[in-house]
């Protein structure tokens, strides 16, 4: 009987190793492994928090949570603090910790949130690989307040494997990002070498042919072709710039200034403070600035715009202002299209915000603020 049990355990361990080796999708993997692990240990419930460098946690997987914890879209699991996450963030959790009382469960009981299925405590194991840490694995069972040494050792062994798998998936994600970036670069280069050159020849040919004819109506048509191809060329240039944010190596101001020039806008710049902006913030400002300039060009009917950037240790502020036609904009309204909404989204992703101020007949001001750490 003992032998059979052992074989079953080994089979489950093998299943876990396989899941961890093969998966490329983090959340699917964590859920699968957690289910297997509970089966292996005979515990009833488990959940995994992934915790980022800022100490913010996210529920990444859960199996068989009691209803007191799953109410309102698992609200009790996604909000507030708890002892295990706090200990992890203080760096006091380097190995499996035997049973801890659970703040989330205590609160659920206190507020009468519903059934806790007799669970009051849980064990906590950090997920790490080398000196990188990723989060916590928690497991529990009804009325269980202590795990055996053997159970803890098993949990630690599996957690180590999970940590290594998370690291691998993160590396793959980074690599994919790199592939996408170089693909975009390639596309930009190809567009530049092919379509752009063709449009350029078309424009020159139209111009040349126009000189060869005396027929006014043909001249007019050729002039029109010349104009159209020039416009297409300019749009193409802008598109290529968006694909490949080159220019950023010389800093955000330089890049945006050149982008404005590509669009045919006259840009007045005003820079204050020492610009030592982290790369990811710069990339975001760059994208938002591009869209703001696109809008100046497309909608404002103005040939110029002002770019102001101000930075100190705590915050960077970028403002793009045109004195064009302006438009009706209300903060509460859902944004009508992708451009403005995209600006907001991008800024919020890095903890910043965008303020849009526009008055019909007077112009538009876009202000972006991003806190720096
Ligand atoms: N600088 C601006 N000047 C005038 N109107 C603008 C400006 N920026 C945006 N708008 C108005 O807001 C609308 C939404 O802009 P946006 O979300 O960027 O979408 P899109 O540029 O694709 O139309 C535009 O269609 C335009 O009417
Ligand atoms: Mg737009």
UniProtKB/TrEMBL annotation:
This is histidine kinase. It comes from Bacillus mesophilus. Coiled coil: none annotated. It catalyses: ATP + protein L-histidine = ADP + protein N-phospho-L-histidine. SUPFAM superfamilies: ATPase domain of HSP90 chaperone/DNA topoisomerase II/histidine kinase, GAF domain-like. InterPro entries: GAF, GAF-like_dom_sf, HATPase_C_sf, HATPase_dom, His_kinase_dom, Sensor_HK_TwoCompSys, Sig_transdc_His_kin_sub3_dim/P. Keywords: ATP-binding, Kinase, Nucleotide-binding, Transferase, Two-component regulatory system. PROSITE patterns: HIS_KIN (PS50109). The lineage of its organism: Bacteria, Bacillati, Bacillota, Bacilli, Bacillales. Its EC number is 2.7.13.3. It comes from the Bacteria. GO terms for molecular function: ATP binding; phosphorelay sensor kinase activity; protein dimerization activity.
